[in-house]
Amino acid sequence: MKTAIVVGHDVSEQGAVSKILDMTEYRFNCKVADVLCNDFDIYYRDAKKRNYNSKMDELARQLNGKNYDFVIELHFNKYDGKANNEGHGCESVIFPGNLKSRDLSEKILDKISKKFNIKNRGVEEHGKGERGYGFLSKIKSNCIILEPFFGDENEALKFLDFEKYANCLKEILQ
Length: 174
Fold this sequence. Notes:
Layout: E1 3-7, E2 17-18, E3 23-24, H1 25-36, E4 41-44, H2 52-63, E5 70-74, E6 90-94, H3 99-116, E7 120-125, H4 133-138, E8 142-147, H5 162-173
Parallel strand pairs: 1-4, 1-5, 5-8, 6-7
Antiparallel strand pairs: 2-3, 6-8
């Protein structure tokens, strides 16, 4: 399976901050990408682009036409105490109705939840106007936004073993 990995966010907009991990989403996922770089093509958002849409347009320019089976963007969640005590576990986001992305997402989430002993929150479909839609709609390959844990929960500490997490992904993606 030909898979590309995209590091979510960028150096100028680093995403959620985990005080527990003492790092941002971007920094965390750069470390994961460092482990994955010998096995997958790694892409980064262009921090020089002004806004999310222009960053997604540039990613699409780089990725489309390379015939990837899947493109996975790495993230982590943060709920700031606003998720009705449900701020834990792994989940993914896909384009509505994409059965290939759903199938692979379910396999990845099942693997992560078992390997790290965390809740599997399942797959969400996000349409126009929802978080991540620009990525999901502009990339021609099957896409997954992967949210393996909540950075403001102690479960985040389980993922400090970047190699263990990266190997978990490799087991499914290779």
